[in-house]
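Justification of computing resources. Each target in the renewal requires a structure prediction run like the one illustrated here; the chain below, 345 residues long, is used simply to show the kind of job we budget for.
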Amino acid sequence: MHRGSTHALAKAKSRMNHRRLAPHRFEHRHGIFRPMKLIAGNSNRPLAEGVASYLGLSLCKAQVRRFADMEIFVEIHENVRGEDVFILQSTSFPANDHLMELLIITDALRRSSARRITAVLPYFGYARQDRKSGSRTPISAKLVANLITHAGADRVLTLDLHAGQIQGFFDVPLDNLYAAPTIARDIKQRLNLPNIMVVSPDVGGVVRARALAKRIDAPLAIVDKRRERAGESEVMNIIGEVEGYNCILIDDIVDSGGTLCNAAEALLKNGATDVYAYCTHGVFSGGAVSRISQSKIKEFVVTDSIMPTEAVKVARNIRTLPIADLLGEAIKRTATESSVSSLFD
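Resulting structure tokens:
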């Protein structure tokens, strides 16, 4: 064989071996291999490990710890110069601690010359403060968006924002993922029920409920809650005929759980066969888990965008739906500059 041909073959084999030994490099759509790293804060380590497993990565070695006075300290133990780095961190309880972790990790990466920093927020904790709710009140979602941007994030990846207009609060690109395809697949595979009807627990969630109903080809109903006079309990009016249907309540956030539990009771009083509930973000504040366990909801399914507590894990009617594959695929497509929106077509 010609000497030049032998040399070219050796170089080709070397490149192939290098690619096999470097699973953290993803092929760009133009054929260029770019380095990539995934780093996790302390908010949801199991989810981060699931995403890393989907991508075939090891989590970036880093130390996120606290001094005696609870100041947060971050040290990255790997070279990230020129890397495409993704930080996976939900701003869930304790929200302020986890937010500060995210900001400090971002600053550490920026000062370490990372090429691009993407903040992956499975749960954006301040999303419910998206407008002035009264005189002299803040728009905290905008403030948090500013903090994340000024800390050094080049783009943001999040899941089921409470209000779509929050995307406009960020001055960097933001991809808002949807749990609806994962939920629809779970409904078809796990429940496989006849006479399914999707129900929005309030008027504000109609768009979300309609999108799910379209995916599973089911009719739609709405729970309209009204308080006729101050001091009186809320009246649940059902818009739609639910008698004889297996009803699926759909919401983005479950906090105290009161609205969903009351909605389930109203649906059963109006002739529903059984009531199930699906939520993206399980905040579960106060006695929410106990309230749901004692409710008439047959099964309550919530994604692991927020790390489930031990109480959630042992609750009789609460099941966790993994979203690591969804986040992992979105991260991979972002790294390779492929379409993320086509995930939901």
